[in-house]
Amino acid sequence: MVIDKSIHILLVEDNPADIRLTQEAFKETSIPNRLHVVRDGAEALAFLEQTGRFANAPRPDMILLDLNLPKKDGREVLAQIKEKPEYKRIPVVILTTSNEEEDIAHTYEHHANCFITKPAELDEFLNVVKNIESFWLSVVQLPNDNRL
Fold first, then answer.
1. Hey, what CATH topology would domain 7-138 get?
2. What DSSP character marks residue 143?
3. What confidence tier does 133 reach under pLDDT thresholds 50, 70, 90?
4. Which residue ranges make up each domain of the chain?
5. Cα 102 from Cα 59, distance rounded (Å)
6. CA 112 from chain center: how many Å?
7. Residues with Cβ < 8 Å from 88, sequence gap 6 or more?
8. What is the DSSP letter of 126?
9. Is the whole model's pTM more than 0.85, yes or no?
């Protein structure tokens, strides 16, 4: 049996350009990782619950969550993740175009681990993703039970 030592990251994003940029940024990291992409909030919850086509999905070590998603928005997804004991220790990084104070307050009230507004410039966006990788995958220690 081969043990996968990669960090599993769930990217919940509906913008194809942002998906591509995030994939490219994580390919350049020195930390072994696997980026799993879902395009709406309903898929994000199915991935976590390992239902439907996600029956064999790994438990993510971190979630990058956009707020403005089809089917079920990121605010609802965050609330559902953080209310379930089996998911609430998974760090959720909000990565969104919003910079509204209401969104910032709402996500922290629902226990987001951080809130980042996506920069409009390509280089700045890549830098943000690299900083997420650097901090969350190199500096932060996550509980071992994230891999259960």
1. Rossmann fold (3.40.50)
2. P
3. confident
4. 7-138
5. 30
6. 11
7. 81, 82, 111
8. H
9. yes
Other Cβ atoms within 10 Å of 90 Cβ, number: 21
Torsion of CA 75, 88, 38, 100, to 10 degrees: 30
Tokens found for residue 84: 């379930």
pLDDT per residue over 63-112, tens digit each? 999 999 999 999 999 999 999 999 989 999 999 988 899 999 999 999 99
Kindly state the tokens that stand for 95.
Answer: 């990565």
- CA dist., res. 114 & res. 99, Å (int): 13
Report residue 118 as tokens.
């996506």
pLDDT tens track for 2-39: 455 778 999 999 999 989 988 888 887 777 889 999 99
Gap between the Cα atoms of 21 and 144, Å rounded: 29
Residues 130 and 22: their CA atoms lie apart, in Å, by: 9
